[in-house]
Each structure stands twice: as structure tokens, then as C-alpha cells.
Amino acid sequence: MSRTQILTEIKKYFAIKELVCNHVYNRFGESAWFLLPSFWLETLLAVRIDILQKPMICNQYSSSSSMYTQRGTRCNICQLTKDATKDGISYNSAHLKNIAGDFNVIGMTAEEARKKIDEKQDLLPYPIRLESGVSWLHIDGYDNDNGKKITYFTE
Questions:
Q1: pLDDT higher than threshold 70 for residue 65
Q2: How many CB atoms lie within 10 A of CB 135?
Q3: If residue 125 lies in a helix (H) or strand (E), which one and from where to where?
Q4: Each residue of 89-115: b (16+ CB within 10 Å) or e?
Q5: What's the pLDDT at 91?
Q6: Which of 38, 42, 87, 112 has the fewest CB atoms found within 10 Å of its own CB?
Q7: Rounded to an integer, what is the distance from CA 78 to the centroid of its chain?
Q8: Answer CATH for 3-153 from 3.90.550, 2.40.128, 3.20.20, 3.30.1380
Q9: Is the pLDDT reported for residue 63 higher than 60?
Q10: Shortest CA distance to 98 belongs to which of 142, 63, 57?
């Protein structure tokens, strides 16, 4: 699939504002798509359309009852990044590299979503990592080069 085709498809399911932090969106606006690699967008499409077949919520700024921020791309001025590096520890989250998202899946728990992704992992175009034991669905595009489509990790 070409980059143009990927962008046309992904925009049916996600707005760029959902996938990047507000700092990035405020700087680049709708053109912030250029920051997200094609393989990552293609992976999100496979998870959303082919595997889960349910709406996925990443960042959500407009709802006062349930607001999520810093769940997609995080930049160097996001509070989570600042907090993670305050003790001088290197922070190499996939969120900083524009290849991660923390999602809520409508109609599924995070554990149900992880199980379904695991069951249908042959539909994934690229290897992913899934975070275990959390109440959200963390997916990232880091490849552990272990020959597996899915690598599970805990923080």
C-alpha cells in the first residue's frame, strides 16, 4: 500500500489530533501526519480494521467526562516525558519515536483486545509489542528482532 493510500484509509478511523500530543498538534496541525511512519499507520489499520473491528480511542481532548492526553506521540515537553527523565534516566519510549499508542477499545477490555490481537496476529503486517497487565491497550512498533509478530512486555 502506498503512503497516500495508507493516509486515506487511516483518516477514516483516526484524526491526527488523536495520535499526537497537543504540543505536536499545535505546532504542525493537520500536517503532523508526516511524523508517523507508514509501517506504524499500516499496523494501526490492521489492528483497527482487520483484527479488533472496533473503534479505538487514543488521545481525546474534547470530552469533559473522559479526557486522555499524551497517549500517542509524546514530545520532549510532555509532562510524562519530563517525569520519566527527571532523575537523569534515559527515556526511550516508542511514544517519543512516533510509533506507539495507548488505546481504549470500545466494547472490549484491554485484556480482551490483547487476546484477540494475539489470536489474529497473522494479520499484522509488522511485528508489534503489547504491554501486559495494564488497563489500556498499549501497542508499539518496536521490533525485538526475535522472529515473533508479538512481544509482550511490562514497564
A1: no
A2: 9
A3: none
A4: eeeeebbbbbbbbbbbbeebebeebbe
A5: 80
A6: 87
A7: 16
A8: 3.30.1380
A9: no
A10: 142
Cα(36)–Cα(50) distance, integer angstroms: 20
To the nearest whole number, what is the mean pLDDT of the chain?
93
Cα separation of 3 and 39, whole Å? Answer: 9
The label of the residue with cell 505546532 reads: 27
Per-residue pLDDT, 82: 79
Q: Cβ neighbours of residue 106 under 8 Å, at least 6 residues apart?
A: 54, 55, 56, 57
Neighbours of 52 (CB within 10 A): 21
Ranked by mean pLDDT, which of 48-57, 82-91, 138-147 comes out on top?
A: 48-57
Dihedral of the CA atoms 101, 3, 76, 155 (nearest 10)? 30
Taking residues 34-62, report their average pLDDT. 95
